[in-house]
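Reviewer comment 2.1 asked that we show a complete input and output for one of the modelled complexes. We chose the magnesium ion case, as it is the one discussed in the main text.
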Amino acid sequence: MRRITIFGATGSVGQSAIDLIARNPGAYDVVALTGGRNITQLATDAVRLNADIAVTCYPECYDDLRTLLTGTGVACAAGADAIAEAAARPVDWALSAIIGSAGLVPGLVALKHGTKLALANKESLVTAGPLLMNTARAHGATILPVDSEHSAVFQALVGEDMAAVERVIITASGGAFRDWPIERLASATLAQASSHPNWDMGQRITIDSASMFNKGMELIETKEFFGVDPAMIEVLVHRESLIHALVGFNDGALMAHVGPPDMRHAIGYALHWPERRTLPVERLDLAKIGALTFEAPDHARYPALALAQDVMQAGGLSGAVFNAAKERALDGFIAGRIGFLDMSRVVAMTLDKMSSAGGLQNADMTLDNVMETDRLARIRAGEAISQMG
Ligand code: NDP
Ligand code: MG
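Response of the prediction step:
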């Protein structure tokens, strides 16, 4: 039996992973499931999958979780430290599907124990890519991409020589507002930004898709994970979300990964890697689909892309600033404090302020420096939000 842990088990990606695991319960020994406020789901899954421990990141949810788990044989714990402790429990495979930079520490702890880490939590690569990749190398651990574009690139690279790669193209649906006149974007509401044309995902990443902050993060994720030059990475708007990424080689070939917009494919690929196993996802009927379309991204519509490109060029701790400011700006938008277009302004202002203060590029990428940068960037972004509100 394979021992597995799922961080962020109650979320959109976590639930897709549980769907796969629950179909074949005899194959897995579930060690830990972690979640946040959705403790009913957490407790239900922990009992049904017979997990050793269920952990909520919120101490105030502990009593309710304990009540739900009393007499079930599943242990429980609460708080960020308890999640990090759960990450230290030996497993063969762990899924990092926490949302936000809170996913960084559990991911690092799992890597230090040599775990095979399936990584959906792109924020940890954006915030501290070199730290994550070096930790994996130093401890003989493997990171497997779960973000659909990065899983697609990873699959297109099987058996290939990185030296022959000329470019990496990640696709973008264009998000909820792809057909809106730009003038309307400033008045976009939370409900409008929270609906995705093709993918069914958590609310935060859905809004990030409408603003293309998600694609900006994925540019940085591509650079950090595959170690490619930023100039080699492109974004292509592809409305159908069926081609997830393409890799261009020095002989002119483009290897495209085509599949249904269902995260269970990328999660399942990482779960069974290096094998391919049957997965319960739709088989595409391309004749029925008929046509696939492609467009260059409109940078005026999606300022997040240029910000991400600057961050890739700058490197160092600027990714930590970008991610933290983006998370804070997104909180501000969700709380109704700032408008949709203000999110990219908040991130730009925070990056400007913190890069002119200096030290972002040359500082050592230690966990302490990353956490301190993340903390400061949230304060600066909060100040920018107050100026706007
Ligand atoms: P969700 O918001 O649906 O779920 C997030 C999970 O993290 C939940 O289990 C949540 O608990 C938990 N959580 C929230 N805050 C914290 C915290 N501070 N500490 C620990 N756990 C916390 O997110 P998604 O599933 O949409 O996304 C998860 C990750 O995967 C993100 O990094 C996202 O960018 C990435 N991703 C998602 C895709 C998708 O299809 N959704 C596609 C590609 C990448 P609770 O809900 O119980 O409060
Ligand atoms: Mg993606």
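Residues 147-149, 218 surround magnesium ion (ligand 2) (CB under 6 Å). We note this here for comparison with the apo prediction described in Section 3.2.
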